[in-house]
Amino acid sequence: MAVTRRRALAAAGAMLSTCALSPASFGQGGAQGKPMRIGSTLPLTGPLASLALIHKVTGEIYVENLNKRGGLLGRPVEWLLRDDQSRPELTRTLYEQLITADKVDLVQSPYATAAILAAMGVAQRYGKVLLHNSFGVPRLAKYDMQFQTAGVAFDPESVWPNLIFDAAAAAPKPPKTVAIVTSKFPSVHFISVGAREVLKKRGLQEVLHLEYEFGTRDYGAIANRVKEANPDFLWGGTNGIDPVLMLEAMRKIDYRPPAQAHLFPAPGPMLKMPEAQGSLALTNFEAHPPFTDDPGIAQFVRTYAERSREAGIPYNAADLQAAIAYAAWQVLEAAVTATKGTDDKAIAAWLKRSEVPVIFGRLKWNGPQNYVEGSDQYKVKQLQQGKWAVVWPSRWAAPGAKIA
Amino acid sequence: MPSAALLGQSVLSGIFIGALYGLLGLGLSLSWGMLRQVNLAHFALAFLGGYLTYQLGVAKVDPFVTLALTVPAFFALGMALHWFLSRFAVTLLNTLLVTFGLTSIIEALIQWYWTADFHRMESAYAALRWKLGPLFVSLTDLITLGFAAALSLGMWGLLRFTDLGKAIRATTEDAPIAAAFGVNEKLLAYLLSGLAGAFAAIAGVCLALNHTLAPVQIYAWMGVVFAAVMMGGLGSPLGPLVAGVVIGVSEALTMALTAPTWAPLVSFSLLIGLLLLRPARF
After folding, report:
1. Among A85, A307, B42, B186, which residue carries the largest CB count within 10 Å?
2. Distance from CA of A221 to the nearest CA of B (A)
3. Which of A213, A238, A252, A275 to mutate to test the interface with B (most CBs of B within 10 A)?
């Protein structure tokens, strides 16, 4: 049976509507007994701290709501969160402590590929199931009891470029020539390598290919070379603040790409840049219909906006990062509830044969290395008039939004 | 083959980024060469200056008006740092360790107040640029070059032509003998460290005007600015600017002619080359 958008959202909504933070739900349920302890780390300090804060706020919202609904198996959930300082070697140590000293019932995901790899080794050693939400290189996830909750395909280096080029082909002026400019940050670099193959197969011409080191300070020469190459479409294998720095350098030389995509930009800094308007990027969730058609999801979006503001996060619309954090907790709750316990092997076996509705669709793990090959839950968003809106596939597009 | 416009624009980009290397390196060079203090916290102070400029910019205070506040404040901070290092007689190598610790503290404070997220100062200056033939020049880049040139030349002139400068040079050469001739070497040391702090404040304004701020980026500038300072000569006011421009232009041409990924190798390759060819310089 084909899973339509409406069925997926209805399933997610059925789950999330029970999570609604309406006044009537306060005090109901009442988890009792020995707490169920869930341990994890996040990079609360260091280079990745800005993203970790989103995951922390989302996790807190989820756990608070979960406990108001009666916790897990009637037990209150206690989240033991440690700061791994964006250092994978510290992540490893902290997960060892969480499992052996703190004796947590279950572990949850750290953030980003290097930390997840470190945690995965520890989880494997102790036979713990590991749900993770930000692992950038699926082929490196070899542990049998790891399960991604971000909706990523096993082959994103093929799926994502095809998704973006499909969106670009639907634009009023489909591109013919492409400039590939990519960071050497591992999880975007290999996607850009895949993009080079995909564009050839699609009959597009690569007019420039540049790679730069992660942490590059000056994008002047890169901007100059892109301007000289004069592409129809700029593929930015970029994340974080890189797109902003690149576009600022292009502004200084009075250049703006006719069309552009940046894989995972920090959403806030691009909002006010005129040069960034029209830019495409990847997402799996945005805070607009049809995602927020469900009251439960809409409530989460409102709560996140409020809590993120209080936490000092500049960009307060729930999007990809908040959604993958939320989904990780949804999967944990579903698995523990279904298996009626915290047995890691039982949870892993259940996940492998199940589908779980989450905030952005349905997740399953019945493919290679517990992924799904050839498709995923990602969409393409576009910055239009200072706001991000999903534009592709069209069935997920914001009301009235078309790719421009 | 890249066009003349591409090469010309790359050279310009290199000059401007090199000027910022020089501006950041000026205070470091003075404290390292003349006070025998390797002040890693100089970078943290520059970023703190940038964040203060950003914050006051949010309150619609012009970045140049911000200097009226930050320059004296950072002058005092520089003197306070020198008091701390001299009070505990911290040796040259240990100043590296102590100031690295101070850098971490300042970074943590910045992150506590402004969070780890990126911040970009909105400024009317960023919109202004001019076209010179096929080349573009932006006002914020010119401001950075102007500050770097003015402070470097001003410091060079002070050291070269004034009695104060002669006293500072004498103290650097041989402090006890200079003291015997009536030079107040302690006061001069405080003056120099205050100046280094003030230069960090000015570098901070240029960082805020030209770059997006994030606490973690404090460390991204250390390697290349160290290379500029060492190549330019410790204690030399003009050296970091000249070396910074050489590095900046070399990086930009490398990115224009080969691949951006080779650019980080440029600064240290130049430094190693200089070490091999002119070891006596160090």
Report:
1. B42
2. 5
3. A252
Residues A211 and A222: their CA atoms lie apart, in Å, by 9
* Domain spanning A5-151+292-373: CATH 3.40.50.720: no
- Complex ipTM value: 0.83
Of residues B5, B117, B252, nearest to A50 (C-beta): B117
- B12-57 confidence digits (pLDDT tens): 999 999 999 999 999 999 999 999 999 999 999 999 999 999 999 9
**A24 pLDDT higher than 50:** no
Q: What is the DSSP letter of A31?
A: -
Tell me whether the omega of the peptide bond preceding residue A393 falls within 30 degrees of 0, making it cis. yes
| Secondary structure element (H or E) that encloses residue A57, with its range | helix A49-68
Chain B contact probe: residue of A54, A216, A230, A253 with most B CBs at under 10 A: A253
pLDDT band, very low/low/confident/very high, at A7 (cuts 50, 70, 90): low
- Residue A143, sorted as left (phi over 0), alpha (psi -120 to 50) or beta, turns out to be beta
- How far is C-alpha B137 from the geometric centre of its chain's CA atoms? 22
* Three-state SS at A50: helix
**What whole-number distance in Å separates Cα of residue A157 and Cα of residue A137?**
9
Whether the CB of A163 is below 8 Å from some CB of chain B: the reply is no
Give how far B236 is from chain A: nearest CA, Å. 25
- Is the minimum CB–CB distance between B134 and chain A shorter than 8 Å? no
Listed range (B26-30, B121-125, B197-201) with the worst mean pLDDT? B121-125
Residue A11 has pLDDT above 90, yes or no: no
DSSP codes of every residue in chain B:
---HHHHHHHHHHHHHHHHHHHHHHHHHHHHHHHH----THHHHHHHHHHHHHHHHHHTT--HHHHHHHHHHHHHHHHHHHHHHHHHTT--HHHHHHHHHHHHHHHHHHHHHHH-SS-B----GGGG-EEEETTEEEEHHHHHHHHHHHHHHHHHHHHHHHSHHHHHHHHHHH-HHHHHHTT--HHHHHHHHHHHHHHHHHHHHHHHHHHS-B-GGGGGGGHHHHHHHHHHH-TT-SSHHHHHHHHHHHHHHHHHHHS-GGGHHHHHHHHHHHHHHH-GGG-
Contact between chains at B118 and A217 (C-beta distance less than 8 A): no
Query: Is the four-CA dihedral A62, A63, A67, A72 of positive or negative sign?
Result: positive
**If 0-12 CB within 10 Å is exposed, 13-18 middle and 19+ buried, where does residue B105 land?**
exposed
Task: Give the per-residue pLDDT at A2.
Answer: 43
Whole-number Å distance between alpha carbons of A383 and B118: 19
First to last CA, chain B: 38
The pLDDT tens digits of the residues spanning A137-157 come to 999 999 999 999 999 999 999
Q: How much is the average pLDDT of A95-120?
A: 96
On the question of pLDDT at B185 being above 60, the answer is yes
Chain mean position to CA A12: 17
In this structure, are strands A177-183 and A233-240 parallel, antiparallel, or unpaired?
parallel
Fold of domain A157-283+380-396: Rossmann fold (3.40.50)
A26 has pLDDT over 50 = no
Q: Which amino acid is residue B106, in one-letter code?
A: I
Q: How far is A248 from chain B (nearest CA, A)?
A: 9
Instruction: Show the tokens assigned to A390.
Output: 């999903």
Domain ranges of chain A: 5-151+292-373, 157-283+380-396
